[in-house]
Amino acid sequence: MGRFRKVTDRFSVSPQIGIDDVAAAAAEGFTAIINNRPDGEEAGQPTAAEIGDAAGAARLAYQHIPIVGRPTSDQAAAVREAARQGKTLAFCRSGTRSIMAWSLGALEARDAARDELVRQGASAGYDLEPILPIA
């Protein structure tokens, strides 16, 4: 499985990316990056501003929507909305918060059924079964 884990044709997730990964994302056709990692969560991680500057230099849209723990409804909606900008790469420490937020946003907006989201998560290497609420 590649570093950028494809969930749909327009949405992928990743563990923490570095400055060089921003250019790689642009080269792979991504048009937007969503950073779900709070600054200072781990020593040595690039800051939101550094990733934002690299995204700007690569002409990518950039949103910083930091999530600690389970995404709130507002955070899920913000990720869902930000992901509508085009082919989007979202990241956090492991990618789990990013896919959780996107999936919860899609579920709350009724953009996708729970079973479909669980399948998409599994195809990207994430188990959403215990995370997504049963309607």
Q: How does this model look, in words?
A:
The chain has 135 residues and is an alpha/beta fold. Helix content is 39%, strand content 15%. It has 5 helices and 5 strands, in the order ββαβαβαβαα. The chain has helices at 19-27, 48-57, 73-82, 96-108, 114-123; strands at residues 5-8, 11-14, 32-35, 61-64, 88-91. It has a 5-stranded mixed sheet, sandwiched between helices. Strand 1 and strand 2 form a beta hairpin. Helix 1 (19-27) runs parallel beside helix 2 (48-57) and helix 3 (73-82) packs across helix 4. The chain is globular and about 40 Å long. The protein starts with a strand and ends in a 12-residue tail after the last helix. The mean pLDDT is 95.
Give a nutshell description of this structure.
With 135 residues, the protein is α/β, with parallel strands linked by helices.
Notable features of this structure?
five-stranded mixed beta sheet, 135 residues, single chain, 5 helices, alpha/beta
Lay out the secondary structure:
Layout (H helix, E strand, L loop, with lengths): L4 E4 L2 E4 L4 H9 L4 E4 L12 H10 L3 E4 L8 H10 L5 E4 L4 H13 L5 H10 L12
Parallel strand pairs: 2-5, 3-4, 3-5
Antiparallel strand pairs: 1-2
Helix pairs in contact: 1-2, 3-4
